[in-house]
Amino acid sequence: MRSMFSTSLFRQAASRRASPSFVARRFASTSQTSQGASSSKQVQNALGAAQRLLGSAGRVLGPLGERAAGLLGSYRQPLIYNAEVARELLKQIYIAERLQPPTSFATITDAYSVLWGRAKNQQYWRDLLTTGEWARVAVYAVEAYTIFKVGEIIGRRHLIGYNLH
């Protein structure tokens, strides 16, 4: 009796797998072929553009550019590909967030005058402490300090101190 019960369950499961409705069911919102083909085409276009750019940089920089490209060796193609992917990602973020540079000098001066006015205003600092916004300002200050220190490290080309030798 037990073996008959297990074989009937096996037959039901096998018949479900063989039915076309079970096999053809997809839960994706887009077809894989159109999505994969377009992304593959974009990747190939980006890689081609990067290789043309690196080739033109080698010609512009002369022997130094050719030597720098030769030093990369087998890392050249992945490095170029990752740079192009980062560029495309940043471009999409720029478009999605509707970022744009300041359109006039007055916009820049207005922004700095607001910052300077807040820094001199004692009531602003009192409100900052009472509302709890001081934590957000502290995080911004730490970010600015970190960016400054990373810039110093890059400028020195050394992690600690200057190389005096």
Keywords for this entry:
single chain, 165 residues, mainly alpha, 8 helices, extended
Short description:
This protein is mainly alpha-helical and 165 residues long.
Structural account:
The chain has 165 residues and is mainly α. The protein has eight helices and no strands. The N and C termini lie far apart (89 Å). α3 packs across α4 (63-72) and α3 packs across α5 (76-96).
Major sheet size, sense and barrel closure: none
DSSP E strands, number: 0
Q: What is the 3D shape?
A: extended
Low-confidence stretches: 17-23
Helix content: over 70%
Average residue pLDDT: 76
Structural class: mainly alpha
Report the order of strands and helices.
HHHHHHHH
| Rg computed from alpha carbons, rounded to a whole number of angstroms | 30 Å
Strand content: under 5%
Count, helices: 8
**Gap between N and C termini:** 89 Å
User: What is the chains' assembly state?
Assistant: single chain
List the helices and strands and how they pair.
Layout: H1 2-18, H2 20-23, H3 32-61, H4 63-72, H5 76-96, H6 105-120, H7 122-131, H8 134-156
